């Protein structure tokens, strides 16, 4: 009987590995080595559980169509524009930028933008909480809906589980169109369940945009259960750049509709009208890992400094190596992370990356409170800010977006803002782990690479 069971188990393992290989090939999935190893080990040890989980949660990209080679550059072209052209993204465009100094300014900016909308309001968020600040935003949206403005709200299905659902009911009763991006219930054939829309925009009249790292919840603006708000970054855009963001919202809105999802596509490529703002969406709807590629390229081009802030630092191995190499060749690399974030697993999983980066000479700053901002500055030449964390899920799995800034003013503002946050931070000191901790960290990375 034991021999028979072993034979059936061996067949299940072989079958699971074959299905894994075939599906990965058909999907043209590219995942970090630790992710591939974790799936293979899971299929060997527990194929009956791992195979269904892989088929449901293992997908990373939509099946892209055949890629068309990018047209040749016309004259002198900034390297970021060349990358965007190669990715099939809209090129750099003009626009005005206004950063918010803190959560209170961010909320005021959002409410003012909503109140000034004349024809259309489109909102995308990961979390829309039924707390005081969430209710204030909802009330502003409902007021515009009653004034004849078309209001649409796109909320991520997983994010909905993190907040009370009353806000959705209230919006819908007022006539606001609400869609859930990949609801936690139900399963669409051919669509992985582990994909989340982490993009955060409010777009007024297809031109003015409020975006960044803040969700629509009190901890991002005023207070979290009576404590101080989280440190975060949002900003407003106005001008042609707004139309580029609005087109991406349209694609996401269609993708959230079961009837329209089959024909939803990414933002059409375009040369742009010229300018210093580049909108960079990333995620399963992009054939390439756009933000990751830009970050790695920018690390290799940095000459003097790289300054970054992120709530979670569990980066792709390629990005970690690019940051290390920059530090090793003399570039001043400064990284700001919270001493303790709102995700304990992420804090435990980051230890190896922090030690590796510190070992290359980078300076790591641990902020005393929760820092949820996402931005990175390269010399005085380029900065990116938006929703992308420097962790594998955000870089490779989530639907995300960043804006790349090339003008001197926004680069200087972001650089100064990050520097100001490091004043109260303490320096990270790497401590060599014990053998047991080192093994534990490795297992944690292998088991939680997609959490």
Automatic annotation (TrEMBL):
Q: Does the keyword Magnesium apply?
A: no
The species is Dokdonella koreensis DS-123
| Taxonomic lineage | Bacteria, Pseudomonadati, Pseudomonadota, Gammaproteobacteria, Lysobacterales
The cellular component terms of Gene Ontology attached to this UniProt record, alphabetical and capped at eight, are: plasma membrane
Q: Where are the transmembrane segments?
A: 6-23, 35-57
Q: Which domain of life is it from?
A: Bacteria
**What's its membrane topology?**
Multi-pass membrane protein
Q: Which UniProt keywords apply?
A: Cell membrane, Membrane, Transmembrane, Transmembrane helix
Keyword Repressor applies: no
- Full protein name: Cardiolipin synthetase
Write one Pfam family the protein is assigned to. PLDc_2
Annotated GO biological processes are: cardiolipin biosynthetic process
Q: What is its main location?
A: membrane
The PLD phosphodiesterase domain sits at 193-220, 367-394
> Where located?
Cell membrane
**Gene Ontology MF terms in the entry:** cardiolipin synthase activity
Gene3D superfamilies reported for this sequence? Endonuclease Chain A (3.30.870.10)
Report the InterPro entries cross-referenced here.
CLS_N, PLD-like_dom, PLipase_D/transphosphatidylase
